[in-house]
Amino acid sequence: MEIQNDQQTLSANDTQTILSRLASRLSCRDFDGSRIAREELLLMLSDALEAPSSCNQQHWHFIIVDDPQQLARAAELAGGNPHFRTCSALVYLCFQKGWTHDNFSVVQGVAAAGYHLMLSAHLRGYHAIWNAGIGDPEGVRAMLDLPSVFDCQGAIALGRAHPDAPARKPPRRPLNSVVSFQTFERPENTIYPVENANTYPFHAVSRDSNPYAQWDPTQWSWAQLADYRAWSVWAKSPLNGVYTSRRQGEASERELDLIPSLPTEAKVAELMPWGGTSTVTLARRLPLDASLTVVELHENNLHFIQDRLPREGITHSVEGALFSGTSLPFATQSVDLVVIAQSLEHMADPAAILREVRRVLRNEGHLVLSVRNRASRYGAEWARSEARGQVPLQGPFTPIGPKRLQQLLCANFEVEELHGIGQSAGGDSEVLKEGLDRFRRRIIALRASPA
Ligand SMILES: Cc1cc2nc3c(=O)[nH]c(=O)nc-3n(C[C@H](O)[C@H](O)[C@H](O)COP(=O)(O)O)c2cc1C
């Protein structure tokens, strides 16, 4: 087919209109469950085929799954992507192996077609999301009856957004932080610490096995932590229940059982709740006249939490405030309760933060703190397997054992009550209120007052 170069015929206005429309695409994780006709799906796929491919080989293959039962099976396999059940179709991005021409050329070609497919869907008024999280590769292969010479590393979900689906475009890094001319140049805080090594071979790294991952947040600067956590929090949409951990189970509720009775119009601060999962539990617990401020390192986290809370049915007004890791944004002795729910172990300098908490707490105020316990079964499991993989989206963390916790607290706080929560490495939330066994539980939660 001969195509005229029609670039000259587009006015600057038309160009801008098209580009703005393309830029407004955002991932949808909340579909309305309606079907898209196959003719329409095929139109979008034929748009996708306009993408470039290495040597024009077009070694791609797209498997469209639009049968509701098979979509349910796909969701089961994927585990973490519930939108597979409610989208209209999943387009599995497959490619023939043995033709990479180095540099993953075949994979690059499929990716080009994948994004073209998303843009086509967007311009045609549909919604889409790309998913690498398709689940166990062999399970997917069996479901798709995919020959062994083909592989599949992702699927694009297509559908119509639910009318209430989140509509905020996830933030983008500033242009000058990711683009440089001629040679590599990039702000320090956007390059994250890794274990020292002479070389970093690409194939030595996978999600579950990453010899270079630096899990100790004290080896990161606050600015690096802020940067990492700020972009990754938008890896999901701010939907009800997002980022709720199966391992945590009911433990959040039990941690917050330690909240004391509060004075009228109490001022409450929560530190570094990342995606706001703990904020939801906390906001439900507070008396209506209490004010709650969540303190985070980056505005991206605050926007995510602010979008999320109404979707969780939280009517309590929650303020957001920023801190750089050094001083908390409160006047001295102005806060009645500070809550740090499993975030101390994510901090670059937990001792400094606890000093700051002491500064901002009123003398009769309280700290409610919980940490993942290094001396628990979970802590051992963390060291044996979790910490060998990629650091999580919430940022690097290292569980804290009872001794270290005591060292961190003793200069500024007196522990009033201490609970050990959860016996197993995950899931249960049995509470132990007395005895030494508390210090072997998955989570140590405590209430302390200024010393
Ligand atoms: C290769 C790739 C894999 C992705 N995998 C998933 C996934 O498994 N689950 C998910 O919810 N989002 C996934 N996403 C969507 C990203 O989280 C999303 O594109 C990003 O947060 C930017 O948001 P936007 O697409 O709304 O601009 C993936 C995106 C890409 C490009």
Element string (H = helix, E = strand): HHEHEHEHEHHHEHEHEEHEHHEEE
List bound small molecules: flavin mononucleotide
Termini distance?
80 Å
CATH homolog superfamily of the largest domain: Vaccinia Virus protein VP39
Name the beta content range.
Answer: 15-25%
What is Rg? Answer: 25 Å
CATH topology of the largest domain: Rossmann fold
Quickly give the CATH architecture of the largest domain.
Answer: 3-Layer(aba) Sandwich
Question: Roughly how much helix do the residues carry, as a percent range?
Answer: 25-40%
What's the structural domain tally? Answer: 2
Number of helical segments with 4 or more residues: 13
Output the strand order for the largest sheet: 7-6-5-8-9-12-10-11
Major beta sheet, specifics?
8 strands, mixed
SS-derived structural category: alpha/beta
Count of DSSP strands:
12
State the shape: globular
Mean pLDDT: 96
Low-confidence stretches: none
CATH C-level name of the largest domain = Alpha Beta
Features:
451 residues, alpha/beta, NADH Oxidase, four-stranded antiparallel beta sheet, 29% helix, binds flavin mononucleotide, Nitroreductase family protein, Nitroreductase, oxidoreductase, SAM-dependent_MTases_sf
Question: How is this structure best described in words?
Answer:
The chain has 451 residues and is α/β, with parallel strands linked by helices. It folds into 2 domains: 26-159, NADH Oxidase (3-Layer(aba) Sandwich), CATH 3.40.109.10; 251-450, Vaccinia Virus protein VP39 (Rossmann fold), CATH 3.40.50. 29% of the residues lie in helices and 18% in strands. The chain has helices at 12-23, 38-48, 68-78, 105-123, 137-144, 175-178, 222-232, 251-256, 277-285, 299-311, 350-360, 377-384, 402-410; strands at 60-65, 89-96, 127-131, 150-159, 267-271, 291-296, 318-322, 335-341, 361-372, 413-421, 431-432, 443-450. An 8-stranded mixed sheet has the order 7-6-5-8-9-12-10-11, with helices on both faces. The chain has a 4-stranded antiparallel sheet with strand order 1-2-4-3, sandwiched between helices. Helix 10 links the parallel strand 6 and strand 7. Helix 2 (38-48) packs across helix 4. The longest helix has 19 residues, at 105-123. The radius of gyration is 25 Å and the shape is globular. The N and C termini lie far apart (80 Å). The mean pLDDT is 96. The structure holds flavin mononucleotide (FMN). Flavin mononucleotide (FMN) binds at residues 26-27, 29, 81, 129-133, 154, 170, 234-236. The site of flavin mononucleotide has 14 residues, from strand 3.
